[in-house]
Specification:
Blueprint lengths: L2 E6 L2 E5 L3 E4 L13 E3 L10 H7 L5 E4 L14 E4 L5 E4 L2 E7 L6 E3 L2 E2 L8 E7 L2 E5 L17 E5 L8 H11 L3 E5 L8 H10 L13
Parallel strand pairs: 3-4, 4-5, 5-6, 12-13, 13-14
Antiparallel strand pairs: 1-2, 2-3, 7-8, 8-11, 9-10, 11-12
Helix pairs in contact: 2-3
């Protein structure tokens, strides 16, 4: 049976036949048990070398966009699989597909979004223990969400500033209707528990607010 752990911010661990990590961040103790680590993009709060060292071992596989590779050179792991949006892949017996993840209304300066579509950063839909888990990455409500189907668990950024607000997160899950939505990307850099609660209040689908695993 699949077990889900929220590691804080956008970091998660799913335990089943494989130990699957997404965007580990600010981990303070060694686990070194990852079969696969999915990295959505190269920003420091999603591709953090210190936390990767806590989860990787010599047989781990890293899945990431190409611009993450320069950060991985001093890490010990088996292999890296480079990905781009809207493709299907298999790694360690896990089938997954990638989605676009980008901003449409969050800008660092006029005309320059924090997460440009042209960077080809991603979200991941990974089948774990027959469940389709969608880590949305750092994204806004984008047209490509209408292509997302049959999601069991959606991990939804809700902090605003760099990603969707709670209101936008509720709009997003209304587009693709996951069986359950889990708010993320709050409580570390930006966003608070109030954002997660607001998202739950507004969502048209069931929401599970998780407690951070502290280890």
């Amino acid at each position: 049976m699949m077990k889900m752990e929220w590691l804080g911010h956008a970091g998660f661990c799913f335990r089943s036949e494989k130990n699957v990590y997404f965007d580990p961040f600010q981990l303070t103790s060694a686990r070194n048990d990852a079969d696969v680590v999915f990295i959505t993009h190269e920003h420091f709060d999603h591709c953090e070398v210190a936390s990767l060292k806590q989860v990787l071992h010599k047989e781990s596989i890293i899945v990431c966009p190409p611009d993450c590779v320069s950060k991985l050179k001093d890490l010990e792991f088996k292999d890296v699989l480079l990905v781009e949006p809207e493709k299907k892949y298999t790694v360690c017996g896990l089938s997954f597909e990638t989605t676009f993840a980008y901003n449409v209304n969050k800008f660092r300066s006029p005309g320059l979004p924090y997460h440009p579509r042209g960077n080809n950063w991603v979200g991941y839909i990974v089948t774990i223990d027959s469940k389709r888990v969608y880590h949305m990455g750092d994204t806004d409500v984008i047209p490509e969400l209408k292509n997302v189907k049959d999601i069991d668990v959606a991990l939804v950024p809700v902090s605003g500033t760099y990603v969707m607000t709670p209101e936008e997160g509720a709009q997003a899950v209304g587009i693709f209707s996951p069986k359950i939505a889990v708010p993320m990307h709050y409580g570390a850099i930006v966003g608070t528990d109030a954002d997660a609660k607001k998202f739950k209040e507004l969502s048209s689908v069931p929401v599970q607010i998780m407690q951070k695993i502290v280890r």
